[in-house]
Design a protein that fits this description.
Strand content: 25-35%
Order of helices and strands: EHEEEHEEEHEHEEEEEHEEEHEHHEHEHH
Mean pLDDT: 95
Low-confidence stretches: none
Largest sheet: 7 strands, mixed
Helix content: 25-40%
Shape: elongated
Strand order of the largest sheet: 7-6-15-16-17-14-18
Number of strands: 19
Radius of gyration: 20 Å
Number of domains: 2
Structural class: alpha/beta
CATH architecture of the largest domain: Alpha-Beta Complex
Number of helices: 11
């Protein structure tokens, strides 16, 4: 079969990779200039930040043997320090089970994973799919005809594309949280800490997640310096999504000062990454959305869960369904 995949995030790449290995002709359409979606890395000066997903936890899913056995592991790093929690910026160890989850990153950044998944695939970068329709021979995507198609964009985007086919799937009720991800680089070294990240499990504080990148993984900052990624809560992010970088950074730095002292009030580099579709607020059921013998399938983290391993799982299950009917 000739199969078109819309979206080169982890779900789309997982589906495309498996289908290509099975001998199918695959074309992936991606509106950005890079693959991976939220599995992204940003470099600012000498600092390297995982600006989307800050680590990858296989959790025994189908991504695990791919990461650990099939792909190059020469720059794969196991994150050794755990995640702590904070309540109004008071930090404590929190749930012991969270501390036991195995997490990984890559020396050069988590973008390495989707880059490897995309190896050998025909990925059309900078191609926003506007024309998607059903034809007598299958599906038409941007003027090309395919025997089958997989929509691997965030579900609101897939719902929009479905309108051109006359088909309906129960995905219109799924909404995504926005997220402002703030990248901070400091010319001082973080004092020893027992964690690589902290999270607000109640999601009540604007600082919902802090990853100290230079503690998480070597090479993220020059020696004696510190790199951090701060992810702000969905409520705060929605309220200030259109605010200036300066406003967002200044507000975020105030929280860092409260955590670590006034000496952390002046980062030497900073940036803000805006994620419109950060995490699904709710899910659609995979088996209600996809069922054989359909040749138009949906692959998304909005079907199984808003994590890299679940996005990969959705893509892998979609490929298996297309090839074998389940």
């Amino acid at each position: 079969m000739r199969i078109g995949v819309v979206g080169a995030g982890v779900a789309g790449l997982a589906a495309a990779r498996l289908l290509k290995k099975a001998g199918h002709e695959i074309v992936v359409f991606e509106q950005q200039d890079h693959v991976g979606g939220r599995c992204a890395t940003t470099r600012v000066g000498p600092f390297t930040f995982d600006s989307g997903a800050t680590s990858i936890a296989p959790r025994g899913k189908s991504i695990e043997p791919v990461m650990l056995n099939e792909l190059d592991t020469s720059d794969l790093v196991r994150v050794t320090k755990p995640i702590y929690v904070h309540t109004s910026l008071r930090v404590s160890p929190g749930d012991a089970s969270r501390m036991k989850t195995e997490r990984y990153t890559y020396l050069g950044g988590n973008e390495r994973l989707p880059q490897m998944l995309a190896t050998g695939l025909d990925v059309r970068m900078n191609t926003a799919v506007e024309h998607f329709s059903k034809s007598n021979d299958g599906y038409e995507i941007e003027g090309e005809t395919f025997d089958a198609a997989i929509l691997a964009a965030p579900l609101p985007e897939s719902a929009r594309l479905l309108e051109g086919t006359g088909e309906q799937r129960p995905i219109g009720h799924v909404f995504y949280r926005p997220c402002l991800s703030v990248l901070l680089g400091y010319d001082k070294e973080m004092p020893p800490v027992n964690y690589h990240a902290i999270v607000d499990p109640e999601q009540r504080h604007p600082l919902t997640w802090l990853s100290i990148e230079s503690v998480k993984c070597p090479g993220r900052a020059p020696e004696g310096q510190t790199a951090m990624v701060v992810q702000l809560s969905s409520q705060y992010s929605a309220m200030h999504y259109g605010s200036s970088n300066e406003f967002v950074v200044d507000a975020t730095v105030e929280y860092i000062e409260r955590l670590y002292g006034l000496a952390w009030g002046t980062p030497i580099v900073h940036d803000v990454k805006r994620w419109k579709y950060s995490q699904p607020e709710n899910l659609a059921l995979f088996d209600s959305v996809n069922h054989p013998p359909d040749r138009l399938l949906i692959a998304s983290d909005g079907l199984l869960g808003g994590r890299i391993e679940y996005a990969f799982e959705a893509g892998a299950r979609t490929a298996e369904l297309l090839m074998h009917g389940g």
